[in-house]
Specification:
Elements lengths: L1 E8 L3 H10 L6 E4 L7 H9 L4 E2 L3 H4 L7 H10 L2 H10 L4 E3 L4 E4 L4 H14 L3 E3 L6 E5 L4 E5 L4 E9 L14 H8 L4 E7 L3 E3 L11 E11 L2 E12 L4 E2 L1 H6 L8 E4 L7 H14 L5 H5 L6 H11 L12 H12 L1 E8 L7 E6 L17 E3 L13 H21 L3
Parallel strand pairs: 1-2, 1-9, 2-6, 9-18
Antiparallel strand pairs: 3-5, 4-5, 7-8, 8-9, 10-17, 11-16, 12-13, 12-15, 13-14, 15-16
Helix pairs in contact: 1-6, 1-13, 4-13, 9-12, 11-12
This protein binds flavin-adenine dinucleotide.
Length: 413
């Protein structure tokens, strides 16, 4: 049995950062990783470029974690995007941001980010055991100690950080093991499901429009004939499903059977567009309807398709458009309903919603409210961010906070 002060399960950004911030001053810190190397998911993040954070105001970050933003507030404010950027800049990594505010290493190589983390682990003399999958985690109340088993070895420690990630892209090593450990230790698991994932639509009508994208469209979610959420974001039509940042971010709220309604006119609300469109149709009787539609940010192919869906002849003139068809066209343009057949599975989802219930973890310390000395950080928790660097920032901030409180506890502060 090997004895450590602190054991971290999982060498993703959350686990590595927790370990780095616990390390040094002769503390014995161990990271156990099932893969033969660290940060497999980090390496593929941002298409291999690692969108590690966002350059927006940290206060605005709270809007990008769905309904659970409140939980992550403390960790984000204690270790902000600026702090994270400084951490890498001080270690020689130049960073850039794109027009959307997403931050990347200038080299656009996620391996540069990972290498800094591994270098820090080395500097702080943190042990990392690779190719060891933690299979069992037990807690001994009398001894206040955790017992961790892999096929290869047994370990014990006073502090345990579970940083095993979510369930998506399981070939990166995150297969949901952390949920099993947490449950065994008395924690509740909110049903994990794919997030940041495309939506499959019943009788999907836009197959041949694959590649068409729209900026900043209003999207509404309907369930049991009630509107339950609305959102704005970019939408991409693919040959199989609807995707794009707006849909991916919204997917955390969606269930099969829901109706998604999209306003393809985007800039205008339904009523404003209706009034403007009717006025144009009435005053320009000899113009083709298509000509009017081309005045909006819609491609010719898309207009043709929508007119087909509305059952309106392609060369119909405004003066020939019946009131019924006019209303139908406005409805299709501003409130296009699509029934969700299913969501992209864990092989497509970039994040996991659900996970270790936030009610049983302190947002101020990341410590379990059930077992002293047990900490969680990153995607294993029931919190998932939007695209834009919010997940990796979240994992770093939570890892940092967990470490801070472990150190305080060790010092008896
Ligand atoms: C394709 C893709 C692209 C993404 N791009 C971005 C992006 O650009 N920006 C962004 O912010 N987010 C992005 N994400 C999400 C982001 O990568 C994750 O949210 C983040 O990596 C979570 O960090 P983590 O440390 O919590 O978990 P992970 O990175 O999942 O790490 C968990 C680690 O635990 C290990 N582990 C699991 N179980 C065990 C066990 N039983 N024993 C030992 N080890 C175990 C795993 O092997 C893994 O190494 C992307 C995700 C995907 C899938």
């Amino acid at each position: 049995m090997e004895n450590y002060d602190i054991i971290v399960v999982g060498a993703g950004p959350g686990g590595l950062f927790a370990a780095i911030n616990c390390g040094g001053e002769n503390k014995k810190v161990l990271v156990i990783e099932r893969n033969s190397s660290a940060g497999k998911k980090l390496l593929i993040s941002g298409a291999g470029r690692c969108n590690l954070t966002h350059q927006g105001n940290i206060k605005d970050f709270l809007n990008y974690y769905g309904d659970n933003g409140g939980f992550i507030k403390h960790s984000l404010f204690k270790f902000t995007n600026e702090d994270l950027m400084d951490f890498f800049k001080k270690r020689g990594i130049a960073l850039i941001s794109n027009e959307d505010g997403k931050v990347f290493p200038e080299t656009l190589k996620s391996s540069d980010i990972l290498n800094i983390l591994l270098k820090e682990c080395k500097r702080k003399e943190i042990s990392i055991k690779y190719n060891q999958r933690v299979e069992k985690v037990n807690y001994n109340k009398e001894k206040l100690a955790f017992y961790i088993e892999t096929k290869e070895n047994r370990y014990t420690s006073k502090y345990l950080v579970i940083a095993t990630g979510g369930k998506s892209y399981s070939n990166t090593g995150s297969t949901g093991d952390g949920y099993v450990f947490a449950e065994k230790l008395g924690h509740t698991i909110e049903e994990p499901a794919p997030s940041l994932t495309p939506l499959y639509i019943k009788d999907y009508p836009f197959r041949e429009l694959s590649g068409t994208s729209f900026e900043n469209l209003p999207i509404a979610l309907w369930r049991n004939k009630k509107k339950i959420k609305s959102y704005r974001g970019d939408v991409l039509l693919t040959h199989k499903n609807i995707s794009g940042p707006g849909i991916l971010n919204f997917s955390r709220y969606v269930l099969p059977g829901d109706i998604i309604r999209i306003n393809f006119i985007g800039i205008k609300g339904e009523e404003a567009f209706r009034a403007e469109f009717i006025e144009k149709v009435i005053s320009r009787g000899k113009s083709m309807i298509k000509t009017i539609l081309k005045e909006y940010p819609l491609s010719k192919r898309f207009i043709d398709k929508l007119m087909d869906i509305a059952g309106i002849f392609q060369d119909l003139k405004c003066g020939e458009l019946s009131k019924k068809n006019r209303n139908r066209l406005v409805e299709i343009l501003t409130n296009f309903p699509m029934e969700v057949e299913g969501l992209g599975d864990f092989n497509l989802a970039m994040a996991t919603r659900g996970g270790v219930s936030l009610k049983e973890v302190s947002p101020k310390t990341m410590e379990s409210r059930i077992i002293k000395g047990l900490y969680f950080c990153g995607e294993v928790l029931d919190i998932d961010g939007d695209t834009g660097g919010y997940n990796i920032q979240g994992a770093f901030s939570m890892g940092k906070l967990a470490a801070k409180w472990i150190i305080k506890d060790m010092k008896g502060e």
